[in-house]
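During the second year of the project, the team shifted from modelling isolated chains to modelling whole assemblies. The rationale, set out in the original proposal, was that interfaces cannot be judged from single-chain predictions alone. As a representative example for this report, we include one of the complexes processed in the last quarter. Its constituent sequences, exactly as entered into the pipeline, are reproduced here:
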Amino acid sequence: MTDVVAGTVHDRRGGVLRRISDTLFRHPHLLLALLLAPPLLWLGIVYLGSLLALLVQSFFSIDEFSGMVKREFTLSTYAELFNLANIDVILRSLLMAVAVTLAAALIAFPIAYYAARYARGRWKALFYLAVMLPLWSSYLVRVYAWKLILAKEGIITWLAGKLYLTWLLDAILAIPVIGGPSLSISYIGTFLVFLYVWLPYMILPTQAALERVPANLLEASADLGAMPRQTFWTVIFPLALPGLIAGSIFTFSLTLGDYIIPQIVGTSSYFLGQVVYTLQGTAGNIPLAAAFTVVPIVIMGIYLTIAKRMGAFDAL
Amino acid sequence: MRSDHGQPAPRALSLAAIAGLLFLHVPLLLIFLYAFTTEEKSYQFPPPGLTLKWFGAVWERQDIWNALWLSVKVATIATAIALVLGTCAAAAVARARFFGRDYISLLFILPIALPGIITGISLRSAFNIMNFDFSFWTIVLGHATFCIVVVYNNALARFRRTSGSLIEASMDLGADGFQTFRYVVLPNIRSALLAGGMLAFALSFDEVIVTTFTAGQQATLPIWMLTELIRPRQRPVTNVVAIFVIAVTFLPILFAYYLTRDGDHVAGSGK
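Output from the structure prediction step:
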């Protein structure tokens, strides 16, 4: 900064740059437009444009005989979504997303709370990195790690054997619906991997929200005679809620659309993402695939609207 | 926020926090163990024996090197695009209040708030409609789209705590807009940009869902891994690559953390 000496600036750079700069300074809206144009054009054309193209295709249908896409407006593809099998897929994905989100909130809260209120200095940094590292380390590697853990000959079976708990593992696997031949071929397995992979997304915003709770608010609460439990439920928790909701946007949405985790660890029954993937790939039914993607878009649209009202965006 | 005057944390809370952290880290440690196993066919635990031969096997696999090189190229270019677009967007949103500002910030978050499969399939069908051939550039296009938000978030946080009076002072002293940007704004946001850039790089380096839709025959490293997970040829080779991937992403995170640690995440920095 020191090399910009007031007097020399004018002499060195009269000319075009100065004039452009002056114009922009006098017309802040022009500057704003210039700044916003490139990112908006990119996201508007590449991203929103593609989304719209997809949306349009959901109103087309597929010719049953030729397998070609008929480019005529119809709602019949949407009607197909209400087939029993398709409703089943949607409900299964929704239930999984809800279960994963609730469990993630439950596990994330103590970690976030400890990091925000008790961890200091070096410990705080360590906590932060301990959460960030799994978040940014490879998604596939983490899914794969669980394949190793949950496999029939893997570490959990071994551990259960060593602790004489094989009967317990067998009992869990025998539970109808959520059990299966091994943990890596069951809903329990799918749930665990989802929970593991998205958990950091819940911890970080929750911790951020908790850190913003002013200390004097807690002191005031105590001065007014509130028990720690009361302070928690009436002061801390409501203030942490936007953080939890911000985190849930990710855990919920990511679970809803993922197709790799249920493919690698899970039963043979499909989740939303897998159906979309199969429909657009091997089946070549783009209209139905498009109609399927509208489901999470609508759900997330509602979710984001509610989240925004509850102030979750400020906690992102 | 201050701790409760140095009171220790309740025992149950500490235990829950430690258990949570163990849950996050033990699986990653296991990957390390499995990279040395002599057992090739199954996931047997504990490994019957330990060996270093898989590291040599990886070194000699040309397909892995090709995938790695493609991933690095894609991530570099996507990060560069994201840096420019994300900074512009953050500068605009941080400085001014204007009509539709909330919607614009929503638009920037959308590519990561909506499931990746939606971004992927929309891009794929758009490329199909426009008769784009799937290539290196279609992958970059997809990656840059969701990397923008990482840079945007980091830059926005820094812009918010950079005082506007600095810029006014610079203008008062006679600097024009470009000089102010170069000598005042840029030094202030540089480390946040570097952090955002590195996180964007890590994100792109690791992205698999959008890539499966936007790549033709090209295999990035995650795509290579996915193929190996579904149809394994040599399981322990995958484990070694996994360790390598963890190492590659670990360093940028560490570095990004040190660049932004004092300031952007300070207690009470929120509004």
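Chain B is about 75% helix and 0% strand. Confidence is low (pLDDT under 50) at residues 264-271 of chain B.
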